[in-house]
Specification:
21% strand; DNA-binding; 264 residues; elongated; 10 strands; Helicase, Ruva Protein, domain 3; four-stranded antiparallel beta sheet
DNA sequence: TATAATGTTCTCGT
DNA sequence: AACGAGAACATTAT
């Protein structure tokens, strides 16, 4: 669940349905996913308080507890924030369960335990400490070019580098590259102005549209490459076979016909 | 049963 | 220094 669109969808849902509800009880059922300070103080900070604001930067979610501090949520490879009313709807791998006084609940579901919970006094300071780049939906065309077009290296890892741009992961970078017509291994030092335009434009369109879809719980359209990241699949645009390769340890999927940038 | 999976962070080599 | 490969982390699904 966790690239920018999924985290943004969670932010919107929490903003609508999770704020200003009194917290009656909080249980950190899997303390090992919480950093030391959170492990020690999170339950007490939550109990009797309420969430007063939600923010997102890249793939990181921030929930303000009363006047502070903020709960910082990193999802890792799996997970979601689940809002539910009936206790039996609690997700199977809930790591933090919050009971509202009105009877509703919110849980941090994180099956693989690769997520992290932290506390911070200031989200901006946390972003700076983590050395995160500008959010992918905030970064302008000029800054985007400055960071993506480097002297050397491949374009896909540059898009996924959270220190350059925050929010894009393995799956959405494939979609962005597909629409921009670039191979994952294309040389980022050789990107033309037109290709940078296309990348920046498609990044915004893909992430924006996906966030809207995820917010509604809708599937991604069949016309997206992301619906075809599996062996034997066909390109939704040209019908040709999709291919995959390894790029910095991850599997990259692409259409060799539609993405005709030269391979290195 | 072996393999891969939406992320981050580390080491090691270039 | 920047980059890339590979491993580790923990668990599930195919």
């Amino acid at each position: 669940m966790p690239e920018l669109p999924e985290v943004e969808a969670a932010r919107r849902r929490l903003s609508r349905k999770g704020l200003n509800r009194e917290i009656r009880d909080a249980a950190l059922c899997t303390p090992e996913i919480a950093e030391a300070t959170a492990r020690k103080h999170l339950e007490k900070a939550l109990t009797g308080s309420r969430f007063t604001a939600v923010k997102r930067h890249g793939k990181v979610l921030f929930l303000c507890i009363g006047d502070g501090p903020w709960l910082v949520i990193h999802f890792g490879m799996t997970g979601e924030v689940a809002l539910y009313e009936a206790p039996e709807d609690r997700p199977r791998h809930a790591r933090l369960i919050i009971d509202f006084a009105d009877g509703g609940h919110v849980a941090f579901d994180n099956p693989r335990k690769l997520g992290r919970l932290e506390l911070t006094e200031d989200p901006s300071a946390h972003i700076e400490q983590q050395d995160l780049g500008p959010d992918a939906l905030e970064i302008g065309r000029a800054a985007f070019a400055r960071v993506v077009r480097g002297p050397r290296g491949m374009v896909k890892p540059a898009l996924m580098d959270q220190k350059k741009i925050a929010g894009i992961g393995n799956e959405y970078s494939d979609e962005i590259l597909f629409r921009a017509g670039l191979r994952p291994k294309a040389d980022r030092g050789a990107l033309s102005e037109d290709q940078l335009d296309a990348l920046h434009d498609q990044m915004r369109k893909v992430l924006g549209a996906a966030a809207d879809l995820r917010e509604r719980g809708a599937a991604l359209p069949d016309s997206w490459l992301m619906a075809h990241r599996e062996k034997g699949a066909r390109c939704p645009r040209c019908g040709g076979a999709v291919k995959h390769c390894k790029v910095s340890g991850r599997t990259a999927w692409f259409c060799p016909a539609c993405q005709d940038t030269p391979d290195p």
